[in-house]
Write a structure and sequence with these properties.
It is built from ten helices and 13 strands. The protein starts with 17 loop residues before the first strand and ends in a 20-residue tail after the last helix. It is of the alpha/beta class. β1 (18-21) and β2 (24-27) form a beta hairpin. α4 (170-178) runs parallel beside α7, α5 (183-211) runs antiparallel to α6 (216-243) and α7 runs parallel beside α9 (317-342). The longest helix has 29 residues, at 183-211.
Length: 430
């Protein structure tokens, strides 16, 4: 489905403009002159950020979602530990991605909302975080960060449907963010980037010559390729400038990675600390952290069976009891992350006030691999929080409407994303 983007007044250069010459048409990527086109004119100058935390094994809906809706809801078992910050987040139930199925395979569709077909071999499209980064990521050293608790899998995809591998080491992430290279290495890095740009120039020249020999359909496909090449060239140019600048200094030591991959909660807390430092230093504004699904026993009191096995509980009471311990700890660590963001002041506002923090999973029920009734929590940003938005459990509301609301929150003037019909009903800006 095509994307519709509506530009505000004051536009200096339309991104749909075409450069024509040498027999080839090149659609322009992002340029500085286009900034007003993609930033809402009412967007404040202070940076707005987005953090997605995605789960591979779902959450028990009966323990997460309150039984009543609205602002006066009674906290569910998982949310009782967040009562002190209940006005900082919203619970959404009864939502999912239209036409997306496939159980675990739908993890690829989590942030793209793109149906992948029954065999999971369909072509994916750009994920929400990368859509934000495409238009706004130029403002920071790292256009986006893609992280994971274990392994390189992620729900983050480029415009051409390629998965972006995740970084799963907090210590390596710390080095990337805060440890400066030597002057010689900085110059080597800048040189490698310049060489990359030279290669792009060669590719562009060859492609222009090739275009003259192609039919109309192939010319269109080649034009799309040229656009992506030119976009990469601008990113390389920006990276060259960043390579020359020192990295920010933080009052924190390099973390020690947790070697026990089953320590799901410990890893979550450690990576969440790195996420906080990344946005606190404005190293990036768009972060996805994928909490996959450890197959082993999470080291928590009362848990003696593997997390993956517990999530496929088959309504076994003992498994449900142990799974609730693991999931309550996940939500508790998420709440601690929100509290940490709330405690950092930034010109009269907290980091949480300027950061939309989104928690979800592709599985609404991991036991039967259902992709309906996805668990959804949204915190921070300039949303009016403190409520439970309860939609129809049988005829789900499109979660992509929430994606449109979050796109507008970071400053993109769009009213559409994939299967959306507008912004999310009942979720207002403050």
């Amino acid at each position: 489905m095509s994307k519709r983007i509506y530009f505000g007044r004051g536009l200096k250069l339309n991104r749909r403009s075409i450069l024509r010459g040498a027999g080839v048409a090149i659609s322009l990527p992002w340029l500085t002159a286009m900034e007003k086109a993609f930033a809402d004119s009412s967007t404040p100058r202070q940076p707005r950020r987005f953090v997605a935390m995605t789960l591979g094994l779902g959450l028990l809906g009966e323990n997460l979602n309150p039984k009543d809706s609205g602002f006066g809801y009674t906290a569910s078992p998982y949310l009782k530990q967040l009562e002190d910050i209940r006005n900082k987040f919203t619970v959404v139930s009864g939502s999912s991605h239209p036409e997306v199925s496939g159980g675990h395979r739908a993890e690829a569709s989590l942030l793209s909302a793109q149906p992948m077909g029954g065999n999971g071999q369909g072509k994916n499209t750009i994920s929400l975080d990368q859509y934000m980064s495409k238009f706004l990521g130029h403002q920071t050293r790292f256009p986006s960060l893609v992280l994971a608790s274990s392994g390189t899998n992620s729900p983050c995809y480029t415009e051409n449907g390629s998965m972006i591998p995740a970084e799963d080491s907090p210590s390596r992430l710390f080095e990337q963010l805060f440890v400066d290279d030597s002057p010689a290495e900085r110059e080597n890095q800048a040189q490698r980037i310049r060489e990359g740009r030279s290669i792009m120039d060669l590719v562009m020249d060859d492609s222009k010559r090739l275009s003259r020999q192609l039919g109309r359909g192939d010319q269109r496909r080649l034009d799309e390729y040229l656009t992506s090449v030119r976009d990469l060239e601008y990113r390389l140019a920006a990276n060259e400038e960043w390579a020359k600048l020192p990295k920010p200094k933080v009052d924190a030591k390099k973390p020690v990675d947790i070697r026990n991959a089953n320590d799901f909660i410990g890893i979550q807390k450690l990576m969440a600390d790195m996420v906080r430092l990344a946005i606190q230093t404005d190293s990036t504004r768009f972060i996805t952290y994928h909490l996959g699904g450890s197959g082993g026993v999470v080291p928590l009191d009362g848990v003696d069976e593997g997390y993956h096995s517990l999530s496929h509980h088959g309504l076994d009471e003992e498994k449900l009891s142990q799974l609730a311990i693991v999931e309550a700890a996940i939500i508790g660590a998420w709440g601690d992350f929100l509290r940490d963001l709330q405690s950092v002041d930034e010109d009269g506002e907290s980091l949480l006030d300027r950061t939309s923090v989104f928690l979800t999973s592709n599985l609404g029920n991991a036991s039967n691999h259902s992709n309906q009734n996805m668990p959804v929590l949204l915190a921070g940003g300039k949303f009016r929080h403190g409520q439970h938005l309860a939609f129809d459990q049988k005829n789900n509301y499109p979660l992509t409407n929430l994606y449109v609301s979050m796109l507008q929150q970071v400053g993109l003037a769009t009213d559409h994303f994939k299967t959306s019909s507008g912004t999310m009903t009942g979720l207002d800006f403050t």
